[in-house]
Specification:
Blueprint lengths: L2 H15 L1 H9 L6 H16 L6 H14 L3 H13 L4 H15 L1 H18 L13
Helix pairs in contact: 1-2, 1-3, 4-5, 4-6, 5-7, 6-7
């Protein structure tokens, strides 16, 4: 492991997910999963998230697409929180999930919207426009 990529990765991971999340992840490190956490930090975060071509906001939207299509609900919720923290608007998130619905299938979109609603509710975020009545 190169220290610089690990250090860059740790900085990116903390910037995107927050200190509390990263501290919690590393509090559970033991001899079984240490190399995994180091690898994730170095390669995912140091090798990709630390790059400057895409913004964190763009990477977050990409992750939402990928994680939705792969049906990785826990990681989707984690990265939805990060996307909001990276400045993604509800409109951008909605359009991203609509694109998932078309390209990855409606069931993937249904699950992504359901998971997103749970995160928004948990964060106390209420969309400014509530639609009522007949959807037709």
């Amino acid at each position: 492991m190169t220290d610089s990529k690990f250090d860059e990765g740790m900085a990116a991971r903390r910037r995107v997910l927050g200190d509390e999340y990263v501290d919690r992840a590393f509090a559970g490190v033991d001899s079984f999963n240490r190399e995994f956490q180091e690898t994730v930090t170095e390669y995912c975060w140091g090798g990709v998230w630390a790059r400057s071509v895409l913004t964190d906001k763009q990477r977050s939207l990409n992750n939402l697409c990928i994680l939705s299509a792969l049906n990785r609900s826990h990681e989707f919720q984690t990265h939805l929180r990060a996307a909001i923290g990276n400045g993604c608007t509800l409109e951008e998130i909605r359009d991203t999930l609509l694109q998932v619905s078309v390209y990855a299938g409606v069931p993937a979109g249904v699950e992504a919207f359901r998971l997103a609603r749970a995160v928004l509710d948990d964060l106390g975020i209420v969309p400014d426009e509530v639609m009522g009545g007949d959807p037709a």
